[in-house]
Every structure is written in structure tokens, then in C-alpha cells.
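Sample intake sheet
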Amino acid sequence: SAVTTLIWPVQQPTFIFGLADGKVKLGNVKGSKSQTIYSSESYVVSLTSSPSGQGILCGHADGTIVRYTFDNDSELSKGPVCKPIQQFDYSKEEDEKEFMCSATSPSGQTVVLGSFNRLSCLIVW
């Protein structure tokens, strides 16, 4: 499946990438194997990390946004994963489409989501 988005959180030994088939994977430059950390039925459109590198958000074409955190050992949290923190449904609005990109504020308190004609803010942390 095609890689659709890629980030490397600060102070983390691994990078994270999203695929067109809905998978989010953990990659390592020292090896050719990647680890699937999450799988969805929806295309991954964006990834962003917190300024500290301790958390990431994954955005999907269906409007789902999933939050992950790293524990002290730089591994993804084993807690309740794959639970959307907020879902957007603009399917009935002609002038709005799926989110295509995202960025985290320097404080880590806000995420800006970009679509084809609009910016939306989401306070998450």
C-alpha cells in the first residue's frame, strides 16, 4: 500500500508512517521490518506529533482522529488504543471535504487541521 504521510517525533528512535490501506506503522532505519501499530478501514491522511514527541495524532479520510502516546521506554502506549477522541462528519456539506494535513502548536495544546478550503482547530491535550 502507498505511504500517504510520514513523521519522526522528536526524541524517538523510530518514525511513524500512514498508508492508503488505513494502517499506521512504526519504522526503524536500522532494520527493514516495520510494525503495524494500528489498522483502520480508512485512508490515513495526516500524522502529527506533540512538541515533546511523546504523543501523536492520526487523521483518517472518514474523519476519525486517533491519539497515541509513548511511555517512558519510547514504545507506544498499550492502553486503550484506536479509540477516536473526536470524529467529524462533513459528508452532507458540499463545501467541506476530508482533512488533508495537520500541525501541532508549540505548546502541544492545539492541533490545526487543514482540508481543501478550511482550517479547523482542535484542542486535544
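Comment: The two ends are 31 Å apart (CA to CA). The longest strand covers residues 44-49.
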